[in-house]
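User: I'm new to structure prediction. If I give you an amino acid sequence, what do you actually give back? Let's try with this one:
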Amino acid sequence: MTKLTLGTHPFLLGFDQLERMVERTAKAENGYPPYNIEQTSENGFRITLAVAGFAEDDLSLTVEDRQLVVRGKQAEENGDRVFLHRGIAARQFQRTFLLADGVEVSGAALTNGLLHVDLARAVPESVVQTIKIDKG
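Assistant: Good question. You get back a string of structure tokens that encode the predicted 3D arrangement of the chain. For your 136 residues, that looks like this:
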């Protein structure tokens, strides 16, 4: 029995690139930092990442090939501090989110150790196109 994938299903033509992007994003999943995704309006979403200990300058947000990429890297500490216990992670991270066509980042804010990234989906116009049939 042959398994039909999203890109090979006969009714979903041209979705093979979407399937590759979903697979690539799933492979990058590592669980850090934790995040929430909420719907803020009919066409609005908010991603909230827990980035305690990171300053604004330690974080970067980019959109690359329809993927929102959030990166964090803290500045190197000097060796003056002696930890008796170190339970707070100070590691770098990269978290990616696949964005659908028409979804754009509308803003970002860092508040109380939480990075809020607001997204908005543009409402597409309904287009009806008539195709002329040539006599063959």
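You can read the tokens as a compact description of the fold. Here is one thing that stands out. Residues 10-77+87-121 form a domain with the Immunoglobulin-like fold (CATH 2.60.40.790).
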